[in-house]
Each structure stands twice: as structure tokens, then as C-alpha cells.
TrEMBL record:
InterPro entries: Zincin_1, Zincin_1_sf
Entry's transmembrane regions: none
Gene3D superfamilies documented for this protein: 3.30.2010.20
Origin species: Novosphingobium silvae
Domain of life: Bacteria
SUPFAM superfamilies per UniProt: Metalloproteases ('zincins'), catalytic domain
One Pfam family recorded for the sequence: Zincin_1
Protein name, as recorded: Neutral zinc metallopeptidase
Length: 133
């Protein structure tokens, strides 16, 4: 999305950008994404910020909730399916303050959070992001 005056991109716009990012994730990763849901919230709640030791709510743009695949087990039950939450206001602020396009920002956050699903290192997440472009 390009910057223009008018209303900011809606939560539905963010969800569409996130789904487009998911669609670009290559194999063999793509086949393991079933069941991950994406949620859009304006900001992380106070409990989440406190748990992550973050004081400024604009510092958190996304979060993976769930057990990573490298620690999953058939013996684990009763947990919610994995989900990624994108925080709209921090992403909008970063988009306005940087030269990075909103689609690229959302893709970066989605890939990073998907990386947590796989238990990837930051280096591996960057390589996955490069493949998804």
C-alpha cells in the first residue's frame, strides 16, 4: 500500500496483507501453517506488555501465541491453536516513520512470527523472509 491522505488502512486491510504474506511463504514451511490464525488488535494489552517487559506499546508490532513446532508433542492437549496477533497502531506508526511500505512491514512481522512457530533463529527468519519476497 502506498501512503496517501485519507483514512488509515483498516483491520480488514491488515488481515488481507497478512494473508498475502502467508501465501508467499515457500515450501516446506507453507504446508505447516494450517490452523494458524491471524488477529488484528490496535495495541497489545497491559498484561502482554508487562509479560514481555515492554513499556511503550508502540514497540510491539506483532506476537506469536502458541507452542513452537520444535516443542510440540502428541501428548499436549487443551491448548488453543497457534495464532499471530498484529498490532495495528504500532505498525501504522512505523509505516509513517519509515520509508518501508506497509505490505513489506506486515510481511516482515508475519514472517518473524511464523518463524517463532517453527522455532527458527533470527538468521533463519531473515532467510525465510528473503524467500517470501
Amino acid at each position: 500500500m502506498t501512503r496517501s491522505f485519507g483514512p488509515p488502512p483498516s483491520p480488514a486491510d491488515f488481515e488481507a496483507l497478512a494473508q498475502a504474506a502467508f501465501a508467499r511463504i515457500p515450501e516446506p514451511f507453507a504446508r505447516h501453517l494450517d490452523g494458524i490464525t491471524v488477529h488484528i488488535e490496535e495495541f497489545a494489552d497491559e498484561e502482554t506488555l508487562r509479560d514481555m517487559e515492554i513499556e511503550d506499546p508502540f514497540e510491539l508490532t506483532g506476537l506469536y501465541h502458541g507452542r513452537s513446532m520444535d516443542s510440540d508433542s502428541v501428548w499436549v492437549s487443551g491448548e488453543f491453536p497457534p495464532r499471530i496477533t498484529l498490532y495495528r497502531q504500532p505498525l501504522l506508526a512505523e509505516w509513517c516513520e519509515s520509508a518501508v511500505g506497509l505490505e513489506d512491514l506486515v510481511t516482515h512481522v508475519v514472517i518473524h512470527e511464523v518463524g517463532h512457530h517453527f522455532g527458527l533463529s533470527d538468521e533463519a527468519m531473515h532467510a525465510l523472509e528473503d524467500q517470501a519476497r
